[in-house]
TrEMBL record:
Gene3D superfamilies: PK beta-barrel domain-like (2.40.33.20). The lineage of its organism: Bacteria, Pseudomonadati, Pseudomonadota, Alphaproteobacteria, Hyphomicrobiales. It holds the Pfam family MOSC. InterPro entries: MoCF_Sase_C, MOSC_domain, Pyrv_Knase-like_insert_dom_sf. One of its GO terms (molecular function) is molybdenum ion binding. Residues 24-173 form the MOSC domain. PANTHER family: METAL-SULFUR CLUSTER BIOSYNTHESIS PROTEINS YUAD-RELATED, MOSC DOMAIN-CONTAINING PROTEIN. It comes from the Bacteria. This is MOSC domain-containing protein.
Length: 185
C-alpha cells in the first residue's frame, strides 16, 4: 500500500436495523471489523442483501458499508429528485473524494480509527426506481465507448473498527499497482 493522504470528509452517517431503501441519519456510527455497521441490517460476515441471500446465503459480505459522494446527491437534487444524505441507503456520505475513481483494495481511514477496504461499485436495484421515477437512469451513465457507468457509490468491508461521525476526515491508502478498476459487487 502507498502512503495515506487526506482526500475528503464525512458529511453524514446513517444506519437502519431493518431492510429498507433509505437509512435514517445518526450522530455517529460504529464500524465493527469484519462485520460492518453496528445496528445496521447489512452487517455480517456473510451476505445480507436480500437478493443476494436468495441466490447464495454463503457468499462473503463484500457490501458491509455503502459510501456515497454528496456530489451525486447535489446532482440529483439539481435534476429535481427528492434526495438527501441517507436517502439512497448509504451508511457514509462523503465530500471531496472521487469514490468512483478508487481502485479495488483501496483503504479509507474514516476518522481516527475506522478503516474500510473498497470492494466494488454499488449496483443499484429496482427499489431505486420505486423511490422516484427516473432515478435509476439518473444514477447510471454511459462512457464514450458505451460501457455502463454506475454512479450510486461504492461498497466496502470493515478492516478496523471505530466510530465515524460527520466532520471526520477521510484518508486514502492505495494498494500497490497495478490497480484494478471497480466492478459491481
Amino acid at each position: 500500500m502507498t502512503a495515506a493522504e487526506s482526500a475528503g470528509s464525512v458529511i453524514a452517517v446513517a444506519r437502519a436495523p431493518d431492510h429498507r431503501f433509505s437509512k435514517p441519519l445518526a450522530p455517529e456510527i460504529a464500524l465493527v471489523a469484519g462485520l460492518g455497521v453496528a445496528g445496521d441490517a447489512h452487517a455480517g460476515t456473510l451476505v445480507q442483501h436480500r437478493s443476494r441471500v436468495a441466490k447464495d446465503p454463503t457468499q462473503p459480505n463484500l457490501r458491509q458499508v455503502h459510501l456515497l459522494h454528496s456530489e451525486l446527491i447535489e446532482e440529483l437534487q439539481a435534476a429535481g429528485f427528492p434526495v438527501s444524505p441517507g436517502t439512497l441507503g448509504e451508511n457514509v456520505t462523503t465530500r471531496g473524494l472521487a469514490l468512483l475513481d478508487l481502485p479495488a483494495g483501496a483503504r479509507l481511514r474514516l476518522g481516527d480509527e475506522a478503516v474500510v477496504e473498497v470492494t466494488g461499485l454499488r449496483n443499484p436495484c429496482r427499489q431505486i426506481e420505486a423511490y422516484a421515477a427516473g432515478l435509476m437512469a439518473a444514477v447510471l451513465d454511459r462512457a464514450p465507448d458505451g460501457a455502463l457507468i454506475r454512479k450510486a457509490g461504492i461498497m466496502a468491508i470493515v478492516r478496523a473498527g471505530g466510530t465515524v461521525r460527520p466532520g471526520d476526515r477521510i484518508a486514502v491508502e492505495l494498494p500497490a499497482p497495478p490497480h484494478r478498476p471497480l466492478g459491481p459487487v
